[in-house]
Amino acid sequence: MRARTGIIIAACGIMVYHKRNTNPATRYETMRPPEQLPTARPPRQRPSAALLPAVLIWAVLVWAVPSPAQAEDLVILTHDLTGQAETDPDTGELHGIEHAGKRAFNLEAVREIMTAVGVETRIREVSFAQGMDALASRPDAAFFNVYRTPQREARFKWVGPLQREVDYLYGLKGSAIGDLDAARSVSAICAVEGSQHHTVLLERGFTNVVAAPTYGECFARLKSGDADLAVSSDETLIQKLHAADIPASDIRRVPEPLVQSAGYIAFSPQVDDEVIHRWQAALNGLIASGRFQTLYDRYYER
């Protein structure tokens, strides 16, 4: 940043000096006797004085405009790792816990992709809302797991899918909610703020949606009675119940699915297309080699 500031200051100085020496009001030259003037040499062609400031401005702007983010420049983020990941005390790296569930599997799959493309950046855990904000506000963010929806399609670039799933509303035992229309009558449906579930419920006209920062918080509210229903994929329900200390026998599913979805790695739109192609090729290679299934069995399956 200091180097760029120095270049800009130097360029501005050159422009001021050049303006002073081409301005008739400030430029003074000693008149030469006629006999000293060259008679045979053709006049030298110089760039137009008027063009020099514009060229300098163009050069400074080209230097200042950021280029598309490359693989090694990425900030890589994920969310909702509670109970499914641990931090290496020596390196600070996040690692999935074996047989802990989807988040552990996603984490290890992305770590394998990063190794394949030569990226050594540490993965950081943030809230879902913070991750989505990073995608929209930074030119160099990668964030997983994010559902690829029509509303998000053109806003980001995508690598995946990491998995496909069906998501439902869940309530405690004794809940008599038989379909999504009946769910409109409950006091509160908890969904993660900014998530696909949150968006879908609002788009369908549900006025009883309350937002929480994590899925764990939603199921904690379900247990305490602060929410009547919470959202989860069928495959990741057990992990959420375990984190909230809710016995599986105490939960009831609304039979009608809320949404069918596929989880991806989302990238800021400014990330270079070549980076996206390399990441997708690495994922495809992981699947073709059988390593993807090995990771699934080791980290996703309980």
UniProtKB/TrEMBL annotation:
Q: Which domain of life is it from?
A: Bacteria
Please give the residue ranges the record annotates as the region Disordered.
Answer: 26-45
The portions of this protein that span the membrane are: none
The Solute-binding protein family 3/N-terminal domain covers 105-301
- List, alphabetically, the Pfam families matched: SBP_bac_3
Q: What InterPro entries does UniProt report for this protein, alphabetically?
A: Solute-binding_3/MltF_N (IPR001638)
Could you tell me which SUPFAM superfamilies the record lists for this protein?
A: Periplasmic binding protein-like II
Protein name (database record): Bacterial extracellular solute-binding protein, family 3
Question: Native species of this protein?
Answer: Pseudodesulfovibrio hydrargyri
According to the entry, what is the taxonomic lineage of the organism?
Bacteria, Pseudomonadati, Thermodesulfobacteriota, Desulfovibrionia, Desulfovibrionales
